[in-house]
What we know:
Layout: H1 18-25, H2 33-45, H3 50-70, E1 75-79, H4 89-96, E2 101-106, H5 109-118, E3 125-129, H6 135-140, H7 142-147, E4 155-159, H8 171-181, E5 187-193, H9 198-211, H10 219-224, E6 230-231, E7 237-238, H11 254-257, E8 259-265
Parallel strand pairs: 1-2, 1-4, 2-3, 4-5
Antiparallel strand pairs: 5-8, 6-8, 7-8
Amino acid sequence: xxxxESAHVEFDVTKPSISRVYDAMLGGKDYYPSDERVLDxxxxxxxxxxxxxxxNRAALNRGVRYLAGTAGLTQxxxxxxxxxxxxxTHQVAQELQPDASVIYVDNDPIVLAHARALMSLNGRTGVIxxxxxxxxGVLAHPDVQRLIDFSQPVAVMLVGMLHHLHDDEDPxxxxxxxxxxxxxxxxxxxxxxxxxxxxxxxxxxxxxxxxGTGRFRTYDEIIRLFRGCELVEPxxxxxxxxxxxxxxxxxxxxVEEIIVGGIAVKS
Length: 267
Ligand code: SAM
């Protein structure tokens, strides 16, 4: 299914959806009782858990500004893109690089439906419904092939995404497959839940039990997901410390401590 096809999309609202739960945390209104139940349990485990999503989304915007502005990238593969919200990857990237191509990939069909309805998409922006655990299928998709020139650097974005892959789904292998497809000079942008001990364990338990995914990995496990690519300054850090727009307190809140991210270059 591509954004050029018109398809009737059905959602199973009896089961919670990662994209709807995340969007609700950001203030969106398109959630159902199944999602609300997850949100209640997450809030029980950590009352200010919604901050996690807000920190992540703000970092996504700063990261894309870095990729388009400082790194000068003009091609974006946004894997696990989520529902459209205030400032989306193509809007941020195309403001700085008007010719930038952006392809959004998500396995939740609601993302495509909302993208069609809410985003003013243009010829350089595509949205596909696909499972990123099938890199071959994603990379061969006609819209990906049309929008991305794989001989030129690509921003591979796995923002707020890899913690939704279980260990037995081989997140490292998934990253390898996308990195193998892009040339030197491409960038890898990852944000991820961080295991910090008891505090994060309780939240992880709620994520896994009620949403089905949400792994809090150790710092070393997350570093490994960068597959040897060279991290740009300031490295892999709590998102509040990743190129903040303003002054940030040294002492982070608990919720700020449990989400980290970084951008690395393939060399
Ligand atoms: N990247 C966006 C951001 O950081 O604001 C959205 C993050 S949201 C937490 C994770 C998204 O990944 C959801 O929209 C979910 O549907 C999508 N997702 C989860 N598993 C996926 C998979 N196997 N393939 C493609 N998308 C997936």
